[in-house]
């Protein structure tokens, strides 16, 4: 049981080879398709294959390292988008702070804040924090030199191939494609880890190997013991101010004036909560498809997502903003926003692991 009373287990997926998960855009000469780390939907499919059926919810995936000394699993998280290097001294880091502007925006009103810091540089790519460092950040600590950033858990491999038609190479079909491989070092072992919330129907012991990503590549499956843990949230939220950090990409949906559900960058929040500021580095193009059992696919889709590592500064109102914020944060921390929305597609995306958030303080 976890702290919410749910029965859950953490699974680790260890790829036997480099992994290829494209962002879903056109793969053709001159186009912009990229290879990225596995989406939540990729891992959710692998979890379902391991259990033989879907679980209640999947929360992940996180690159996770086995500490050979402490003999425990340590998850890693994308660097928060409001932590950036100082432009004139990249070895020093700073945290963007909210500044009153009084400027009206299309969000309505003039209470939108600007995130800024003297000499702030551009957001870095592929930087990661361990759970302990992220916990300090959620409590409001400022970053120090190098911000405690860890080396990337991934290495990129570029492979060259040809497209064939029978025994003949197709004209103009020499191509190169990128693959991701979890870092391999002596004494260390990395996996993609996900928390799986179980239902009464999930009675089977997870089994592997399972397919992970494109080209039918395989990954071994194991139950992680002791299980990794999400960084703990703060004990209070003065003034009703909650920082919402995205641990996995977020895809949320809102009902438009014409009655249709459309993708939005704003997370679903309670009635007395508003977004005052946001640091977002995206968007990400996310594609997914399910096999149809005959070698084809069904239910293919592409949507734009808010990238993992994005940060929202949320302000609660009402008669007791601090109490309301604390109650919401305790319920939300380590879960996916949108799982209780009326839109069935939005609920499906949340249970697959899109939009898992951690909560912290902001000033």
Compact summary:
The chain has 363 residues and is mainly beta. Helices cover 11% and strands 40% of the residues. Strand 11 and strand 12 form a beta hairpin.
Description of the molecule:
This protein has one domain (8-360). Helices cover 11% and strands 40% of the residues. The two termini are 34 Å apart. It has helices at 40-51, 131-138, 321-332, 344-351, and strands spanning 8-15, 21-22, 35-36, 57-67, 72-78, 83-86, 89-95, 97-100, 113-116, 128-130, 154-165, 168-182, 189-197, 210-211, 218-223, 241-246, 252-255, 261-264, 273-279, 284-291, 297-305, 311-316, 335-336, 356-360. The model has no long low-confidence stretch (mean pLDDT 85). The longest helix has 12 residues, at 40-51. The chain contains four helices and 24 strands. The chain is mainly beta and 363 residues long. Pfam families: Cas_Cmr3.
